[in-house]
């Protein structure tokens, strides 16, 4: 019994520093808020009749925390974040059914193999329009002040894909050049 206080003191003395110090050195991995997003098309659908209007689009994705992740709807499942987006996916040849549904986005933290994890990880999976017949999945990894990765869309026309990046939303007055310059 006399060893317990000594053991506790030894563990405290050998700790990695205060929690504040540890958290300050890690990049923020919270999706809550607005993000500036860029999607670039690398592989258009194989069965596409027309060339997509653009090879790159920009827009905004905004998320809130899903406080009811456990037992949520079948579409949101255990997603850690729920959101909406403002991007013209049709310019990339996506949204081919002209779905007039709500532009929904759901996000889940994943491991390196795309398997959902219960804690905040270095990777995230974002699904655009999870209830639609055209599944668009963005798999990305956190960097300093950004998320980068690849996206895949699957439909009856085949599989399309490309790359994406997301950065925290900037003030509209100081925004970078528009995506229209990259068509």
Q: What do you see in this structure?
A:
This protein has one domain: Beta Barrel (Lipocalin). The protein contains two helices and eight strands. The chain has helices spanning 3-13, 19-25; strands at 33-43, 56-65, 81-86, 104-110, 123-128, 135-143, 146-155, 158-168. An eight-stranded antiparallel barrel has the order 1-2-3-4-5-6-7-8. It starts with a helix and ends in a 15-residue tail after the last strand.
CATH superfamily: Quinohemoprotein amine dehydrogenase alpha subunit, domain 2
CATH topology: Lipocalin
The residue-averaged pLDDT reads: 75
Helix share bin: under 10%
Computed structural class: mainly beta
Specify the number of helices: 2
CATH architecture: Beta Barrel
Q: Alpha-carbon distance between the termini?
A: 72 Å
Give the strand order of the largest sheet, numbering strands 1, 2, ... along the chain.
1-2-3-4-5-6-7-8
Keywords:
2 helices; Lipocalin; about 180 residues; disordered N terminus; mainly beta; globular; eight-stranded antiparallel beta barrel
What order do the helices and strands come in, and which of them pair?
Layout: H1 3-13, H2 19-25, E1 33-43, E2 56-65, E3 81-86, E4 104-110, E5 123-128, E6 135-143, E7 146-155, E8 158-168
Antiparallel strand pairs: 1-2, 1-8, 2-3, 3-4, 4-5, 5-6, 6-7, 7-8
Brief digest:
This protein has 183 residues and is mainly β. It is built from 2 helices and 8 strands; from the N terminus they run H-H-E-E-E-E-E-E-E-E. It is 10% helix and 38% strand.
């Amino acid at each position: 019994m006399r060893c317990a206080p000594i053991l506790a003191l030894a563990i405290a003395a050998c700790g990695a520093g205060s929690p504040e110090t540890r958290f300050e050195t890690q990049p923020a991995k919270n999706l809550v808020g607005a993000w500036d997003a860029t999607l670039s098309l690398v592989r258009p659908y194989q069965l596409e009749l027309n060339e997509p209007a653009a090879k790159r689009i920009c827009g905004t994705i905004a998320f809130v925390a899903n406080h009811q992740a456990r037992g949520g709807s079948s579409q949101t499942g255990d997603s850690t974040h729920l959101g909406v987006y403002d991007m013209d996916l049709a310019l990339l040849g996506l949204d081919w059914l002209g779905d007039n549904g709500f532009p929904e986005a759901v996000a889940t933290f994943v491991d390196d193999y795309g398997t959902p994890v219960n804690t905040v990880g270095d990777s995230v999976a974002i699904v655009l329009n999870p209830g639609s017949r055209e599944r668009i999945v963005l798999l990305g990894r956190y960097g300093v002040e950004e998320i980068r990765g690849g996206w895949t869309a699957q439909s009856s026309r085949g599989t399309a894909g490309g790359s994406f990046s997301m950065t925290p939303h900037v003030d509209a007055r100081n925004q970078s050049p528009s995506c229209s310059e990259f068509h």
